[in-house]
Amino acid sequence: MSEAAEALVDLTAAVMDRVAAGVAVMTLVDAAGVRRGMTISSLTPVSADPPSVLMCVGGKASSRPAMVEGQTFCANILAADQVGHSVGFAWGEADPFDVFEWSSAVDGTPVLAGTVAHLLCEIERVVEHHETAVVLAKPIGGVVHKDEALVYWTKRYFVDLVPAPSGEAGVW
Questions:
Q1: Cβ(26)–Cβ(37) under 8 Å?
Q2: Predicted confidence (pLDDT) per residue in 150-168, tens digit
Q3: Cα 158 to chain centroid, rounded
Q4: Which of 90-104, 120-134, 154-168 has the lowest mean pLDDT?
Q5: 169 pLDDT exceeds 80?
Q6: Which residues pair with 136 in a beta bridge?
Q7: Which of 36, 42, 91, 117 gets the highest tally of CB atoms within 10 A of its CB?
Q8: Cβ partners under 8 Å of residue 54, min gap 6
């Protein structure tokens, strides 16, 4: 890679580090019946009507082979007190399903306990982009449990968010 290309990679990473993101853990049961999960910060709304979301999954992720049309997954939106969940599903040495409390949705998809919210989704399309799978999915259920979400910004977790002084509220 050229020096200019490396500089652009570094610049892009530095800029994207300044985009605050909610933290979610994607959980599923793959075709072989294996529970899988991974921390994601790329959960993004695509459309409100009909509702759709996307997430990005790197090619080296162990969950990547399960990203196929028709697969269901749960986007578990982590609460402010669930930093351990984020770290455990990203880099934990133990099976996080043995460490953290969870239950099964009607179809068997793992749903983590204590989250801010969860959204059950069905994969509609997977687009390969470089070494990343861009996963487009339609929500099929979910629950909002509470507020106080975990946020990741500048390579750190934040838990005490303060509303802007104007009191303005955005509408999605």
A1: yes
A2: 999 999 999 887 777 776 6
A3: 16
A4: 154-168
A5: no
A6: 54, 125
A7: 36
A8: 42, 43, 44, 46, 134, 135, 136, 137
